[in-house]
Amino acid sequence: MADGKKRDDYTVEMHDLGKSGKGYDQPINSPRPVGPAPMSSAANNPVLPVLSYCGSSILMTVTNKYVLSGFGFNLNFFLLCVQSVICVVAIQMCKSSGIISYRDFNSDEARKWFPVSLLLIGMIFTSTKALQFLSIPVYTIFKNLTIILIAYGEVLWFGGTVTGMALFSFGLMVLSSVIAAWADIQHALQNYGHSETEASAKVSSLNAGYMWMLINCLCSAAYVLGMRKRIKVTNFKDFDTMFYNNVLSIPILLVASLLFENWSSANIEINFPPLQRNRIVLAMIFSGLSTVFISYTSAWCVRVTSSTTYSMVGALNKLPIALSGLIFFDAPVTIPSVSAIGVGFVSGIVYALAKVKQSSAPKTGVLPTTAQPMSASSQSARDSFKS
Description:
Largest sheet: none
Strand content: under 5%
Radius of gyration: 22 Å
Shape: globular
Number of helices: 15
Structural class: mainly alpha
Helix content: over 70%
C-alpha cells in the first residue's frame, strides 16, 4: 500500500546503496564499482517499474475476473481470505530474507488501524461482486467515479480544492459511465431480445452489477480518505500498511465465509469443478500474489520516477486493463463500448494533467521551504487498482 507521501528525493538516495564504507573518500564523479552497477542501473530504470506496475494491475484484474465469473464462483469471502493469507506469507518470507522490512505486530497499532481494514474489506468485497456481474471494461470505467467522490470528500473534510480542469475531467468520467451502461443494456437487449425472460434476467444482472459498483465507489472513497487520516496517527509506511491490512482482514473474512457462505459439498463442487479445480486454485494464488506485486511495484514506480509520473501511469493504465477484458473475456466489442473506453481513458489523462497543473501552480502565502502534503485526490490514483 502506498503511504501517501512523496518520495521524489528517495531517487537521489538510492544511488548511494551500492557504495561501501570506502566510498566516502572518493570524489563525487568517480566511477562506481563494476559489480553492482548493472543491478543498480536496472533497478533505477523507470521503464521497468512502470511496466511491472501495469502488468501486475492487469494480472490481478484478469485473474479475479476469471475466478469470479468463469465457473459460477460464489465464495467471495473465502477468495479474499486466501488472498490475504498468501499476501502475509509472501511479505513475511521477503522480510525474513531481508528484502523488505516492516513493523512487528503491535496490538495498540492494530486497534488504531482496524477501522481502515474494515473499509478495505468492504472495498475489495464489493469490487469482487461488481466484477462478477460486469465486464472488465465497464468495471474499469465506473471505477473512475471513485476519484470524484474522493476529491469532494477532500473538499468537505480536508479543505481541498477542485479546479476547472479537474471538474471537466469529472464530467468526462460521468459521460463515459453513462455510455458504458447504455452500451451494456443495448447489447443485452439485442442479444436476448428474442426471449423476454432472458433479456429481463440479463438486465437485472447488469443492474445488480451497477449497484455493487456504486457501493464499491463509496467504500473505496471512504477507505482512501480514512487511510489518509489514520496514516498521520500511526505513521505507517508501504509494507506496514500491507501487513496490518491483511493480518487484520484474515479472521474477519474467515468468520464471514463460514457464517454467510454455503459450504455444502454440492456448492463446493460448483465452485471447484473437478476439471477446472487446479486452474481455479492457481488463479486464486496468482490473484493473491498480484496484490503483493501491485503494492511493491507502485512504491517502486514512485521512488524511481515521481508521484506525478505515477499518477499519469495510473491514468494510462486504465486503457490496457479495459482492453484485457475485450481480449481475454467475452466483453462486447461495439462502437458505444469502445467509445466509452476512449472517453474514460481521456478523462483519466485530463484528471492527471489537472493534478500536475495544480501541483505546479504557485501557492500564495506559503513559504517555499514548507513541505506540501499530497492530497487525498492525488493519492486516489495510487489506490484505485487495489481492489
